[in-house]
Amino acid sequence: MATSIAVTSGKGGVGKTNTAVNLATTLCRLGKRVILFDADFGLANAHVLLGTNPKTTTADFLAGKASMAETMTPAPLGLNFISGGSGLIELLNLDNQARYRMLAGLSSLQSEIDYLIVDCPAGASDSTLFFVNAADIALVVLVAEPTSFLDAYALLKAAYLEKNITEFSIMVNMAENSKTAEANFKKFRDIAMRFLDVKLHYAGMIPQSTAIRQSIIQRKPISVSQPKSTLAENYESLARHLMKAQKSTHDAVKFFDGTS
Ligand SMILES: Nc1ncnc2c1ncn2[C@@H]1O[C@H](COP(=O)(O)OP(=O)(O)OP(=O)(O)O)[C@@H](O)[C@H]1O
Ligand SMILES: [Mg+2]
Predict the structure, then answer these.
(1) Can you give the CATH number for the domain in which 205 is found?
(2) Cβ density class 19-41: b for 16+ within 10 Å, e for less
(3) In this predicted structure, what is the pLDDT of residue 43?
(4) Is 250 domain-assigned?
(5) 72 C-beta closer than 6 A to ligand 1
(6) Is the pTM here over 0.70, yes or no?
(7) 18 found inside a domain
């Protein structure tokens, strides 16, 4: 059965999109069939990092001009990419009904894929909580800053109180090294578990790296352009953690239920 992973964060600009893109391409490299769905509709930019120029986007799907399958753009390593379009999509009134239509559109593709990666907007917006609720795995991107901790805690609290989600995978981005990354995870886990009845699992780390900045400027994900690099290994380790992660069992309308 296909697995859905929502990539989220409390604070903006912590590296969600770059993580979602590299996670998706790494899963492709590991032989998985993957869709990357850009759900950051107002500020969609995953296509920039992927180096693709989508002709169709979710806006076409919502306007009834294309099926969800028809909105897919081929991306590196056989990845299927669904663009969040430009700010235009906001004009289509992204209410819960529109979100459920997207969910149904993505559900209809479940027999064709192994993984759906959803790049979410920052923070605990209605949209993010909707997609996190529908996903099997909530991946929270953390950086070692008090503001990131605070905002990630707010996201966890909202997901727990509003959607009863108790399991979260955490990755530390822009880390100094693996030791400090894990120490930061533990610090964050201790804070979260002191106040909320949640379980946090460490999924891995990506170091602070000028090569990553460079890859974004060149519009070539590092896991595609430098598959033998240490950074690509870090993404592979993250992907392997998530492949083994337990799926959330909270009661919700999920992307995938194994029926079609
Ligand atoms: N591991 C890293 N090392 C160095 N720079 C990084 C790393 N990850 C991300 N960045 C930098 O951070 C910037 C923001 O990354 P990204 O767009 O992925 O964040 P985001 O969380 O998706 O942002 P937003 O909240 O706006 O959607 C990138 O343009 C890149 O320059
Ligand atoms: Mg982003």
Answers:
(1) 3.40.50.300
(2) bbbbbbbbbbbeebebbbbbbbb
(3) 86
(4) no
(5) no
(6) yes
(7) yes
